């Protein structure tokens, strides 16, 4: 199913901000980092469908915890060899999964330790 915005060719910054629930300032930030390249008509930014697609990738990357550097590297291959893009993506995804698994293990260890401390404190409190 396509949304009405999937068939449009031009977007104002406010349109994209509203569609994705982000601020226009965030979009300008991504532009300042070279991740988006809207055209200009005077002082007005005009975003094309390609910019919208890149914004979708940026927001998905941020949501998945990738750095702006990682996202930039991926987007730099946007028009390049697809196999390079897929290879980079697979590498970054594998790194991200490994990091999240380490963090999960650390959290599980911390929770076990805190529960043990809580159990000991409850036992001491019950004896008092």
From TrEMBL:
<dbReference type="Pfam" id="PF09278">
    <property type="entry name" value="MerR-DNA-bind"/>
</dbReference>
<dbReference type="InterPro" id="IPR009061">
    <property type="entry name" value="DNA-bd_dom_put_sf"/>
</dbReference>
<keyword id="KW-0175">Coiled coil</keyword>
<feature type="coiled-coil region">
    <location>
        <begin position="83"/>
        <end position="120"/>
    </location>
</feature>
<keyword id="KW-0804">Transcription</keyword>
<dbReference type="GO" id="GO:0003700">
    <property type="term" value="F:DNA-binding transcription factor activity"/>
</dbReference>
<dbReference type="InterPro" id="IPR015358">
    <property type="entry name" value="Tscrpt_reg_MerR_DNA-bd"/>
</dbReference>
<dbReference type="InterPro" id="IPR047057">
    <property type="entry name" value="MerR_fam"/>
</dbReference>
<feature type="domain" description="HTH merR-type">
    <location>
        <begin position="10"/>
        <end position="77"/>
    </location>
</feature>
<dbReference type="Pfam" id="PF00376">
    <property type="entry name" value="MerR"/>
</dbReference>
<keyword id="KW-0238">DNA-binding</keyword>
<dbReference type="InterPro" id="IPR000551">
    <property type="entry name" value="MerR-type_HTH_dom"/>
</dbReference>
<dbReference type="GO" id="GO:0003677">
    <property type="term" value="F:DNA binding"/>
</dbReference>
<keyword id="KW-0805">Transcription regulation</keyword>
<protein>
    <submittedName>
        <fullName>MerR family DNA-binding protein</fullName>
    </submittedName>
</protein>
């Amino acid at each position: 199913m396509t949304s009405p915005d999937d068939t449009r060719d031009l977007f104002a910054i406010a349109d994209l901000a509203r569609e994705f629930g982000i601020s226009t300032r965030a979009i300008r930030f991504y532009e300042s980092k070279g991740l988006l390249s809207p055209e200009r008509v005077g002082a007005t930014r005009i975003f094309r469908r390609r910019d919208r697609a890149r914004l979708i990738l940026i927001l998905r990357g941020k949501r998945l915890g990738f750095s702006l550097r990682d996202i930039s590297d991926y987007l730099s291959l946007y028009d390049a060899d697809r196999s390079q893009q897929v290879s980079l993506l697979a590498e970054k995804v594998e790194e991200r999964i490994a990091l999240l698994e380490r963090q999960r293990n650390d959290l599980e260890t911390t929770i076990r330790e805190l529960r043990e401390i809580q159990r000991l404190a409850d036992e001491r409190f019950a004896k008092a």
